[in-house]
Amino acid sequence: MEFVQLETFLAVATYGGFHRAAAALRVSQPAVSARIHALENSLGTRLFERGPGGFSLSPAGKTLRTHAEQLLRQVALARQAVHELTPDSSGALPIAASLSICTYLLPEVLKKYQADHSDVVVSVRSGNSAQVLKMVLDGEVDFGLARSLQHPEVETISLRDDPLMLVGHPRHPATAKRKLSLEELESLPLIAYDRGSSDWTLMNGLFRRVGLLPNIVLEVETIEACLRMVLRRLGLAFLPQLAVHDELRKKKLVTLEITDAESLRRSLDVIVPRRRPLSKSARGLLDLLREATREPKPHSRS
Length: 302
Prior knowledge:
By secondary structure, the protein is α/β, with parallel strands linked by helices. It has 3 domains: 81 residues, Winged helix-like DNA-binding domain superfamily/Winged helix DNA-binding domain (Arc Repressor Mutant, subunit A), CATH 1.10.10; 95 residues, D-Maltodextrin-Binding Protein, domain 2 (3-Layer(aba) Sandwich), CATH 3.40.190.10; 95 residues, D-Maltodextrin-Binding Protein, domain 2 (3-Layer(aba) Sandwich). Helices cover 45% and strands 21% of the residues. The chain is built from 12 helices and 14 strands. The strands form 5 sheets. Strands 4-3-5-14-6 form a 5-stranded mixed β-sheet, sandwiched between helices. A 3-stranded antiparallel β-sheet has the order 11-7-12, with helices on one face. A two-stranded antiparallel sheet has the order 1-2. Strand 9, helix 9 and strand 10 form a beta-alpha-beta unit. Helix 1 crosses helix 3, helix 1 crosses helix 4 and helix 2 packs across helix 3. The longest helix is centred in the N-terminal third of the chain and has 25 residues. The radius of gyration is 22 Å and the shape is flat. It starts with a helix and ends in a 9-residue tail after the last helix. The C terminus is likely disordered.
């Protein structure tokens, strides 16, 4: 049983097939098949079963998955512990983040970070979630910030929930009714952003699952542009909670509740490469991010 075999096993379990696992690991499909075959031979049992719905874990595979995830986590911690014995030699800290995280979260966090780490030069690269993941996997950045990302070669640390919220201007006619059904929402004007992104897919999937189509009257490229359009009363939009927090607090926007659909849940995640320990400066920034995104605890009554 080898580390790379367990990593490949988790990739197949995560992505539900050899082809997608190979693409995620950036190796050939025969290489994935060979690793899984060698792992099954070493254990003397099959780890996957093929059914009408595709690949699924066998009982042995389900048992192994829990232990494999724990083992990879322990290996990452061991690397980190050894790395911490070596002083940092570089004053550079490259990170990657999705554009909305760069806009709405990082400015205040980096202001605090620079106050205590004036010798560290932080370099922030932006992109969509897939691009952020690629930069982490390619070793171009120390860690990445994105939404709801899983990959066998990275450890995902969830900082907080960041759901998509249906919002509108309080004086827009469409916000007169604060609770509505999806069928009622279908006729209301929606503003959409970043076609093909995970946010776009979530929003469209909400309608398509029940045979409806969103009434998109305007498309823009970025979350910030979409937010500005909503503030100008051009329509409603599904926007990340992180992006609209201030506008909701100041009552510049209001939320609308969809009574017959689930919430569009997503998490705000840090993705860290399993095989590259974080530097001391990177760990300091990660601690600040955890602090900045910590959900306030409700006050208890005495």
